[in-house]
């Protein structure tokens, strides 16, 4: 099981092999964390994503990191579920995002990975439940990744992730 820690900050500035983006099915960029990662990585990221699209919710694929600063070598695009009240498989889909991202990280040889809070922005997944799912799925997924950093954009998400990690 990887070491897991939680930080508040800018995921594009993390010192890791791969960063995960909360992507949409087109993999061409969007708002929130996905938009920030696409802006930092440059326009080649959208072109690389488009070549792999569509990506179904719960799945993940990797591209090069392009203009992101080393050591970041890869962006893992994970498509989260749109929250529809919880009765449409959203929990399983979100769990799959974290599991598949770790599997993809293993495939590309990433030993350190940074995750955002997937699906908690415009997709509307309740942040407290999402934090629990993130931590429990990462802990339960066999992986060669040695270190996972959960990166929160704001204080509320940071506190929820810390509580999930230590709860």
TrEMBL record:
Q: Where is the Macro domain?
A: 1-167
* PROSITE patterns given in the database record: MACRO
A matching Pfam family: Macro
Origin: domain of life: Bacteria
Which CDD domains is this protein grouped with? Macro_OAADPr_deacetylase
Database matches in PANTHER family: GANGLIOSIDE INDUCED DIFFERENTIATION ASSOCIATED PROTEIN 2-RELATED, MACRO DOMAIN-CONTAINING PROTEIN
What NCBIfam families does the annotation carry?
A: PRK00431.1-6
Name this polypeptide is given? O-acetyl-ADP-ribose deacetylase
